[in-house]
């Protein structure tokens, strides 16, 4: 398996090289030159545990890893760090199945991939005789940051710098990051939004002069964002896992198509579902759920991607994104793997803030259905599900459930079994969740008081990830302007002399 760049398809590198680099030198994203198939049947996979499914899905993408190397990475990732042996359990709620992707160390779906990425990264470094210290440089809209910090903390031969929008994450998300231990960890709040942070990180990756200085100092950059193919491939696994659990339980028959409904901002999570379909997973519709930053909804409805709009801070901050980086991988696919055309569209996005695909390209992505939920609709959905089912949704999953209801009304598709990604524990967004459940009763109050109240009304045990930060000291308090991120990185690495 070789990987090429979305902006230069003369590039052909192995998976381990793509994981190490994170982003191509031309600014493009690495994509597999072909989507691998499976060596086993879905019925066979239904008899496997999560680790078994992970190996069967990932081995085709990472075929320069030996069986021993890949299984060691999987075994190291999916262990007691997760609070359930199922890793990603399915729960039947009303007319759909909720895929709980937040049972890892930082109670967000990013753990599903960031638990394994450090193992993939360090194994890749050994395979490629890399002796430089790998500096993980990451922008986060809330969840990637903590999951990456937890994964790479004190991993030999690595350092990690996370940039987050200072006023654009939940109080719990921020506290998870700024209390992170580890001698190799750095957390920086930027005065700007996530798109500013993400653009700043990409600019640093593309700075050739800085790369030269880094190499002279014994450093090299890589990424833990989903722009790194080593982050994206592990996310494909849980779509196969969810399908084969339904198959095992007799909910569906082998080959029966199901829907996946994914709350998304940066597009990586739903792109993983699309790759699963390309591998042969029987998927009917991929339901793309957006919040009020509905740039993806507009794209799927009109074929126009336009970030020239107000950036809205919502109660589902991990989706507060106007530049969906992973969409570039889908654009590359629908242009027939045309790197020149893809680069042209991405250049238009950078210079003009918009681009448009053709009617023929729109037809290729008819697998997708897009819609969005307002803040009021999200609140109402969280309250309704709690009142009717006694189940507490986080704000991002609330968006997805609301969009699923709109999908059913709009399409009349009442019968297709649907799996909804639940991307975070409600404890990460306690204030917003409790406000939705009963605004009058739970308005105000300190965040950790609301944590205790949520446990009382839901019966859901407070996760260790919350308890451990309740009284933890703040270890990171650096802030910088978005246009000073490069200077900040050089300072943190001791390169500003």
Major pleated sheet = 6 strands, mixed
What's the shape? globular
N- and C-termini, Cα separation: 43 Å
CATH architecture verdict of the domain at 90-108 and 230-459: 3-Layer(aba) Sandwich
Overall pLDDT, averaged? Answer: 96
Q: Mind telling me the C-alpha Rg?
A: 21 Å
Beta strands, count: 16
Poorly predicted runs: none
Spatial arrangement of strands, main beta sheet: 4-5-15-10-11-14
Structural class: alpha/beta
CATH topology of the domain at 90-108 and 230-459: Rossmann fold
Assign the CATH class of the domain at 90-108 and 230-459: Alpha Beta
Q: What is the percentage of strand-forming residues? A: 15-25%
| Helix fraction bin | 40-55%
SS element count, helices = 23
Give an overview in words:
This protein is of the alpha/beta class. It has a domain at 90-108 and 230-459: Rossmann fold. Helices cover 45% and strands 16% of the residues. The chain is built from 23 helices and 16 strands. It has helices at residues 15-21, 42-45, 50-58, 67-77, 111-114, 117-127, 143-152, 171-178, 194-205, 208-217, 229-248, 268-279, 295-302, 327-334, 339-352, 359-364, 375-389, 395-411, 430-437, 439-442, 447-458, 464-467, 485-492; strands at 3-5, 8-13, 30-32, 90-93, 96-100, 133-139, 158-165, 185-191, 219-222, 258-263, 283-290, 304-306, 354-356, 368-372, 418-422, 478-481. The strands form 4 sheets. A 6-stranded mixed β-sheet has the order 4-5-15-10-11-14, with helices on both faces. Strands 9-6-7-8-16 form a 5-stranded parallel β-sheet, sandwiched between helices. Strand 4 and strand 5 (96-100) form a beta hairpin. The chain is globular, with a radius of gyration of 21 Å. The relative contact order is 0.14. The mean pLDDT is 96.
